[in-house]
Design goal:
This protein is mainly β. Helix content is 11%, strand content 44%.
């Protein structure tokens, strides 16, 4: 994906709603790049709920640059890692 050559593996078990995305990382330090993608068809509502709980929102919900049919937002987890919310 993109000029930086991002790659990931998406794993979903038959009949499951959960899909896991594995993104490569150089070390265990908190990452400025996304480390986990969470699939949620209510990206805007979930972002608002996270914001209300004091979670740092990095990117407000918008069309994904790699697929304009998907909505994405980014936030930091409690350890400072960058996380992504994405619709299907």
């Amino acid at each position: 994906m993109g000029e930086d050559g991002w790659r990931w593996i998406e794993l979903k078990f038959a009949g499951a709603d959960t899909a896991l995305h594995f993104i490569r990382r150089p070390d265990d330090a908190p990452s400025a790049d996304p480390v986990l993608v969470l699939i949620d068809d209510k990206v805007e509502a979930t972002t608002d709920a996270l914001k209300a709980k004091g979670v740092e929102i990095i990117t407000e919900p918008k069309a994904a640059p790699y697929d304009p049919t998907r909505m994405v937002a980014e936030f930091r987890d409690s350890e400072g890692n960058r996380m992504v919310l994405s619709s299907r």
